[in-house]
Amino acid sequence: EVQLVESGGGLVQAGGSLRLSCAASGFTFDDYAIGWFRQAPGKEREGVSCISISDGSTYYADSVKGRFTISSDNAKNTVYLQMNSLKPEDTAVYYCAARRRTVLLSLWVLSSWAFEYWGQGTQVTVSS
Q1: What is the maximal distance between C-alpha atoms in the chain?
Q2: From CA 87, how far away is CA 79, in angstroms rounded?
Q3: What digits encode the pLDDT tens for the residues 52-86?
Q4: Which of the residues 21, 94, 106, 120 has an alpha carbon 20 to 30 A from that of 60?
Q5: Res. 11: pLDDT tops 90
Q6: DSSP character string of 1-26
Q7: Other CB atoms within 10 Å distance of the CB of residue 75
Q8: 102 falls in which pLDDT band (50, 70, 90)?
Q9: How far is residue 4 CA from its own chain's centroid?
């Protein structure tokens, strides 16, 4: 059974940092790309970042570039999202998702429709 479990969310002041984790199980980790998405109340889900587990290539939304860093620990089947310089507009439920692809393409890396498996989400709240 495929499982993606997010953790690390919480309440932080603007300018602060959080590190989210996505623990994966039930599939061959190296065969997949893992993406982070977020959804704020009343807004559509948006792609934040993506990583190819096999070659480590990454992709970021313009809104988080330079502030967020995605990485993976293949020994632990875990992907991280380090979030620095957080802003109130980063407040959302953050989800990780998996797609069985090893090569990232801009066509789909930040598109929720492209991902097959999803976690349950973790809340991130940034206070001003």
Answers
A1: 41
A2: 22
A3: 999 999 999 999 999 999 999 999 999 999 999 99
A4: 120
A5: yes
A6: --EEEEE--EEEETT--EEEEEEEES
A7: 7
A8: confident
A9: 11
